[in-house]
Specification:
Layout lengths: L1 H8 L4 H22 L8 H12 L3 H28 L1
Bound molecules: zinc ion.
C-alpha cells in the first residue's frame, strides 16, 4: 500500500498504477490462499497443485487448477472432519 501511495505522489501514468494494483491483487490472493488453508499440513497433491498453479501459462489454466485445488481441499476437509467424529 505504501508503494501505491508513492506512485500517486510521483504522478506515474495510469497504466503503471494498474500494474501495481494487479500486483497487489495477486499478492493478496496468494496471501488469502495460504491464510485460508483449513489446516497447516499439506499433502503431495496440494504441493503439486500449488506448483502447477504458480507455473501455469494462462488465466484459464490457472482457473482450472484453482478449481481442482478447491475440490481437493474440500475432500481433505471432509476426511479431516470424519476422522474427528470417529474419536
Ligand atoms: Zn492435499
Amino acid at each position: 500500500m505504501l508503494y501505491l501511495t508513492n506512485c500517486s505522489e510521483n504522478d506515474i501514468p495510469k497504466l503503471e498504477q494498474a500494474k501495481v494494483w494487479l500486483y497487489i491483487k495477486i499478492f493478496n490472493e496468494d496471501f488469502n490462499l495460504s491464510f485460508h488453508l483449513p489446516y497447516s499440513d499439506t499433502c503431495d497433491d496440494c504441493d503439486h497443485l500449488m506448483i502447477q498453479e504458480k507455473n501455469c501459462g494462462s488465466v484459464e489454466e490457472r482457473g482450472e487448477i484453482t478449481k481442482q485445488k478447491a475440490i481437493h481441499l474440500d475432500e481433505a476437509n471432509l476426511r479431516h472432519s470424519i476422522k474427528r467424529e470417529d474419536k
